Structures are given as C-alpha cells and as structure tokens.
UniProtKB/TrEMBL annotation:
The keyword Kinase applies. Keywords: Kinase, Transferase. One of its GO terms (biological process) is polyphosphate metabolic process. InterPro entries: P-loop_NTPase, Polyphosphate_phosphotransfera, PPK2-rel_1, PPK2-related. This is Polyphosphate:AMP phosphotransferase. It comes from Pelolinea submarina. The keyword Transferase applies. GO terms for molecular function: polyphosphate kinase activity.
Length: 273
C-alpha cells in the first residue's frame, strides 16, 4: 500500500481544499476484502507492541486530530483492539483546566508523552493550541504564531530522545459531519456523544480548514510527519492508519531482549523441585 500520497512533505504538499475525504484508491479490492487485511494488520500490531514493551527501548507517540465527529475514538478502538493495555495509553486533551492554563501550553502535553516501551495515543494534542485557540482567538496572534516553531522544536527533542512520532489528521467532509451529527441526534446509543457546542463549532469549518492547512504545512517534518487520512469511510481510515503504524513499527527492527545467561540451567532444578 503506497501511503506516501497521504504524507505531507515538501515534495508532496497536501491542499485540504482539494483533498478527497471519500478516497479509497489504495484499497481497490473494496471494503469486504479489506476487513481481512485489517485483521491481519491488527495481529501484527499486537505482536509488534509486545516486542516494543519487552524491549523497552523505543517510545511511540501517535497524535490524532480531527474535526468533531471525525472518528478519533473509533480509530483508537479499531486499531488497538487486542493490544496489551499495560503498554498502551490514551491521553485526551480537553479544554485546559485552571491548573493547566496557569502553565505553558506544552506542560500538560509533556507529562503524557511515552516512556520506553510505551505507545501513547494523543486524542487531540498540542495542536489545539494553534487550532481552536487560533480560530476562536483565545490568545492573540502574536502568541499562537510562535507556537509552530516551538512545537517543532519540542517534537524534535522528543525524537532525538528516542520517540517515534506519527501524526494523523482524520479528514472528513463537511457533508459527512452533518450526516454524523444527525446520526448522533437520532440514535439513542449515540446521543450521549452530542454536544450542542458542536453545531456552533461547525460554523467555523472554513477557519478550521485554514488553521489545519497551516499546521500541516508548518509542522510536518521527517521526524514527526503528518498524514492526512481520508476518513469519510471508517474501514478505509482504519486500514490506512494501521498500515502506516505497522510499517513504522517494523522499521524499528525491534527484538526481544537477550534472556539471562545459560537460561536452560534453570530448567532441571525447577523440574526436580
Ligand atoms: P472532545 O474531544 O469532544 O471531548 O472535546 C474537547 C474540547 O476541548 C474540544 O472542543 C477542543 O477544541 C477543546 N480543547 C482541547 N484543547 C484545548 C485548548 N488547548 N484550548 C481550548 N480548547 C481546547
Ligand atoms: Mg466532541
């Protein structure tokens, strides 16, 4: 699967206004066949995570950003189904608490980054501080403008210290969001997800797209790349993201740590005990 076309880089500048949220071009075999592939990717991920945890050498940070109803929760559920919860954590970033607000914006973020052997998934992230903060002018422009550079430096530091960083913007269309909101309003099992503020937020769609475009243009780096994922179809979104994560973990060339010396010598006394 050639996921490069979703990778934002200097040689592949992604323009959100032209990006197709319905795209399924990397899975020509369609939804049904892809379910099998997703299952196999999940199995691989479970194994890779086991080695990551055992080896306790690499740190993995996965950042998920999306518009409301963009599928962050569903992605986490679908992809990490079955992994060992000891080594995987989710950190969700909401409206900052008074304590968080009394600190710099990276303070709460830094506390949640992965340790050796861990995978941490950020459900929203430091990028809210150049997204919602920018769109709603929660801080003046001269404050948030500096943050792109600061975030790049922060992520560079994490990468230098052994963190693999992957960033995903789950891209749904405005039409798809409307469909999902209606579903939330009508389906009793989804009504709990509905937040009246989401309707107000939807009015700022274009401003958000502009803010996301800047995020992608300014903060997609080889050490912390942004992938823009077509996310109108959940199965396709899950397939592409799993593929990228599995590929990245494989490239770490991890292995179980060496067992203690002469491990077999312990077998006899144990069997006779
Ligand atoms: P949800 O993810 O639906 O539970 O919503 C969390 C809300 O917190 C979203 O509306 C975010 O925009 C908001 N949020 C997250 N981080 C920040 C931040 N740094 N400043 C202001 N609002 C934020
Ligand atoms: Mg919400």
């Amino acid at each position: 699967m050639n996921v490069k076309e979703y990778l934002a880089s200097s040689s592949n500048q992604i323009v959100l206004s032209h990006f197709d949220a319905d795209d399924q071009s990397l899975a020509p075999e369609g939804k049904k066949e892809s379910k099998k592939e997703l299952k196999s990717l999940r199995k691989q991920l479970v194994k890779l995570q086991q080695v990551l945890y055992a080896e306790s050498k690499h740190k993995v940070l996965i950042i998920l950003q999306a518009m409301d109803s963009g599928g962050k929760d569903g992605t986490i559920r679908a992809i990490f189904d079955g992994v060992n919860p000891q080594g995987v954590k989710v950190a969700s970033f909401k409206v900052p608490t008074p304590l968080e607000n009394a600190h710099d914006y990276l303070w709460r973020i830094h506390q949640k980054v992965p340790a050796n052997g861990e995978i941490v998934i950020f459900n929203r992230s430091q990028y809210e501080d150049v997204l919602v903060v920018r769109v709603h002018e929660l801080d003046p422009e001269k404050v948030w403008k500096k943050r792109y550079e600061e975030i790049n430096k922060f992520e560079r530091m994490l990468a230098n210290e052994g963190t693999t960083i992957l960033k995903f913007f789950l891209f749904i269309s405005k039409e798809e969001q409307k469909k999902r909101f209606i579903e939330r309003l009508e389906n009793p099992e989804k009504q709990w997800k509905f937040n009246p503020g989401d309707i107000e937020e939807r009015k700022y769609w274009d401003a958000y797209m502009e803010a996301y475009q800047d995020v992608i243009d300014k903060t997609s780096k080889p050490y912390a790349p942004w992938y823009v994922i077509p996310a109108n179809h959940n199965w396709y979104r899950d397939l592409v993201i799993s593929h990228i994560i599995v590929k990245q973990l494989k490239s770490l060339k991890m292995d179980y740590p060496e067992p203690v010396e002469n491990i077999h010598q312990y077998l006899d006394p144990l069997q006779n005990s």
